[in-house]
From TrEMBL, chain A:
Keyword Endoplasmic reticulum on entry: no
4Fe-4S keyword on record: no
Organism this protein belongs to: Dongia sedimenti
Subcellular location: Cell membrane
Keyword field: Cell membrane, Heme, Iron, Membrane, Metal-binding, Repeat, Signal
Domain Cytochrome c: 60-163, 205-314, 339-426
Primary localisation category: membrane
Highest taxon, organism lineage: Bacteria
Protein name: C-type cytochrome
From TrEMBL, chain B:
PROSITE patterns in the record: 2FE2S_FER_1, 2FE2S_FER_2
Protein name: (2Fe-2S)-binding protein
Pfam families: Fer2, Fer2_2
Keyword Cytoplasm listed: no
SUPFAM superfamilies reported in the protein's UniProt record: 2Fe-2S ferredoxin-like, CO dehydrogenase ISP C-domain like
Lineage start: Bacteria, Pseudomonadati, Pseudomonadota, Alphaproteobacteria, Rhodospirillales
Length: 447, 152
């Protein structure tokens, strides 16, 4: 008996050590895939990959800070839809409770108005508030830690130039042990190297700029890289696609079928900077917001650098996805509509077809075209269902474009029927999403 | 300046490319036969035809309409064969009640008849489902489409 207990304890210790070794000690960093030598920024001889692009070389501190705040997409989490900019209160709905983003306007009591430069640097680089409180890594300090002090302080100068908003952050409702903030000290020790960006001398200056934009600022991996059991990014599966805030963030690697390997540089640059390319679909959900709040504001030279960088990430196939179908569906509603699809087809005819068409090519708005979109080619139908529930609001070069939210109008059964009809009619592989799964998805979306 | 061909006539409009066709029709050209309903392509009241296809004009930016495209509105649909037959059937069966949605209904029904001369119930459902009628004239609409098609 004692012996069995001893063996069991030994096994547990080995498993724990093994997991620590695999996920912590041996885990690659976000940029390790590139190989080569890295050097401290001060020793780098090529063009400086940090700061603002050449187009803004003569801009003042606040203007530079605004650009960097957009590149870091601070607004994604610190501005609530319809709320005052950067006043916080955005709810992250997690399986173990709800976490709220904080007010980062210069209000002295409820915001960060009383913070010194050192306070702000410590929060952004280390995830520690001025009073020593540990911040949760929903705030992507493990990415922002790569930012130079100068860039962080430019962002601070921009935030402090905005009107202070008095808005207390709602208390989190996390359950034990997730409500123990001090535990984040261990998480940070494991997963936040607290180190500034080190340029890679084996790569071009443009690549280094793209890496800085993607890793230090845009924190693409926070949605597109799967997480390990300790909720840190697993860079062995870098950018292969993951679920975040209830939506699937698709594969950004150069994999030909399930990633962006088959996209031309122009297509990729256009998609990243506008959120839509004919034949490749439209960014919606959190990615639509990332384009509207952040990426569409980036200068073309930064978008180009981002593309150069994305091309070098190791290709990984997402086994959950087929190669997207690029052909139009039949113009006749009867084609491809079996008896089993009747409910979905009926609802689609009433609510969807006027904008999306029977072929999938929109008769009214180019961004409403389904053809080639990853979402309709995703056999989980996750993003299709989320788009139906929450609708889509996008800024386009010709003004705002809106798909209404149908979450209140239709039951989960109806939304599942529409989503399954859409993937069957327009995608490569039909989905079989259920009403229960739609109910779960409703609960996962952050807002 | 935007050039549009509406009911066979070429029109020059001083509007921005993102102006919805419905605004151009009603507010700029004074063609008020096409109605505003919901503004989000969910009711069908604003339906017109672009190259014979029924389209919700409230969501269609004029800049997205090709210069060679032919727009037909309720003011001009009677000049087409399918449109004339639909309008006659509408009168014969007294389809209309309050009438607000009916120009859209007629535009969708005419597009259906032109593309599918002998529509069955499923064709009618698929083509007309996006046109909502608060008076509930659906039964007469179905009957009138069949009468116009000669399948009643």
């Amino acid at each position: 008996m004692k012996r069995a207990l001893g063996i069991a304890i030994a096994i547990v210790i080995v498993v724990v050590l093994g997991a620590l070794g695999w996920f912590v000690v041996l885990a690659p960093g976000p940029l390790d895939f590139a190989g080569g030598q890295t050097v401290p920024l001060a020793e780098y001889k090529e063009a400086n990959p940090t700061g603002v692009p050449g187009a803004l070389a003569n801009a003042g501190l606040i203007e530079r800070g605004e650009y960097l705040a957009q590149a870091g997409d601070c607004a994604a989490c610190h501005t609530v839809k319809g709320g005052k900019p950067f006043a916080g209160g955005f709810a992250f709905k997690l399986p173990f409770g709800t976490l709220y983003s904080s007010n980062i306007t210069p209000d002295k009591e409820t915001g960060i108005g009383a913070w010194s430069d050192a306070d702000f640097l410590k929060a952004v680089h280390q995830g520690v508030a001025p009073d020593g409180t540990r911040l949760y890594p929903a705030f992507p300090y493990a990415a922002y830690t790569l930012m130079t002090d100068e860039d962080v302080l430019a962002i601070k100068a921009y935030l402090f130039s905005l009107p202070p908003v008095r808005a207390a952050t709602p208390p989190n409702t996390l359950s034990f042990p997730f409500n123990q903030r001090w535990l984040m000290a261990f998480w940070s020790a494991f997963f936040n190297p607290n180190e500034r960006y080190r340029p890679n001398t084996a790569q071009s200056a443009e690549w280094n700029r793209g890496a800085y934009i993607a890793e230090a600022m845009g924190h693409c991996g926070d949605c597109h890289t799967p997480r390990n059991p300790m909720q840190a990014m697993d860079h062995r599966r870098k950018f292969m696609g993951a679920v975040a805030a209830g939506w699937k963030a698709y594969n950004l690697t150069p994999d030909k079928e399930t990633g962006v390997g088959a996209w031309s540089d122009e297509t990729l640059a256009k998609f990243i900077s506008t959120g839509h390319v004919e034949g490749y679909g439209t960014a919606s959900g959190p990615m639509g917001e990332a384009i509207d709040n952040s990426l569409r504001h980036l200068k073309p030279e930064d978008i180009k650098a981002l593309v150069v960088y994305l091309r070098t990430v190791p290709p990984i196939s997402d086994p959950a996805l087929p190669a997207p179908r690029t052909a139009l569906a039949s113009a006749s509603p009867k084609d491809g509509t079996a008896e089993a699809d009747a409910r979905g087809a009926e609802l689609f005819a009433g609510a969807c077809v006027s904008c999306h068409g029977w072929t999938g090519k929109s008769p009214v708005l180019a961004i409403a075209t389904f053809t080639g979109a990853r979402a309709v080619n995703d056999p989980s139908a996750r993003n299709v269902a989320q788009a139906i529930v929450w609708g889509v609001t996008r800024e386009t070069p010709s003004g705002p474009a809106v798909m209404p939210a149908f979450g209140h109008a239709y039951s989960n059964t109806e939304i599942a029927a529409i989503a399954n009809y859409v993937t069957k009619r327009f995608g490569a592989v039909p989905s079989a999403i259920t009403a229960d799964q739609v109910a779960e998805l409703r609960g996962q979306a952050s807002q | 300046m935007i050039t549009l061909t509406i009911n066979g006539e070429s029109k020059q409009l001083d509007v921005t490319e993102d102006t919805p066709l419905l605004w151009a029709l009603r507010d700029v050209l004074g063609m008020t036969g096409t109605k505003f309903g919901c503004g989000i392509a969910q009711c069908g009241a604003c339906t017109v035809q672009v190259d014979g296809q029924a389209v919700r004009s409230c969501m269609l930016p004029v800049g997205a309409i090709g210069e060679g495209s032919k727009i037909t509105t309720i003011e001009g649909i009677g000049a087409t064969d399918a449109g004339a037959r639909i309008q006659k059937a509408w009168l014969d069966l007294e389809v209309v009640q309050c009438g607000y949605c009916q120009s859209g209904q007629i535009m969708s029904a005419s597009a259906l008849l032109a593309a599918t001369p002998q529509p069955d119930d499923k064709d009618i459902d698929a083509a007309m489902a996006g046109n909502i009628c608060r008076c509930g004239t659906y039964v007469r609409i179905r009957e009138a489409i069949k009468k116009a098609a000669g399948v009643a």
